[in-house]
Amino acid sequence: MSARVQVRANRRGRDIAVGDVHGHFQRLQQALDAVGFDPAIDRLFSVGDLVDRGPDSEQALAWLDQPWFHAVQGNHEALAIAHVRGHWLDQAMYRASGGGWFLDLDAQAQARFVAAFEQMPLALELQTPEGLVGLLHADCPFAHWQTLCEHLAGEPSADVQEVCQWSRRRLQQGDTGEVQGLRALIVGHTTLREVKVLGNVWHLDTGGWASGHFSLLDLASLELLQTPR
Where is the Calcineurin-like phosphoesterase domain (predicted)? Predict the structure, then answer.
């Protein structure tokens, strides 16, 4: 896994971010269609958790194979990796969290998914006309983005990975401190009724996998695009 992936500016179309998908790719496609997403020039950036809970989890591989789709590794991808690689995993919790479809696959199919999930970085960053935008699944463990980048230059520690993929501290504490070195940090992981911005951190998971309301954010303008509810 490349812990951090840098993406060049899109000089032809739009860069759009979306919250957790959780196996609802058909709903996501409908939201993209509604805003005129054009895969020939536009790109979609995901904060991870592509799978579990929804009916279309097996489509994750096809989406990850698209040149216009970029996604960080969420905690649900990490759970699948832990299962296949023999790391500690509470399988009852995993199944209750929507991982039953994966646990019920044969070993060969599980290995295909994990091979793709392991290629998903913990962090993505891309240039926009107004400055650098970062994406993580849950939160940044440091006050400065560059500090995280330095940690991710080697093998990320378990503590750093846990914050990046699991932390809800910022929302729980209402922390409005900015992540320095970024114009904006885009995260998901915690489902909210509406997009919430704390400092320069955008919490983008509005439960598209549950309510059908995916929030799509134009990363150049930091404006939400109108999608069906």
Answer: 17-124
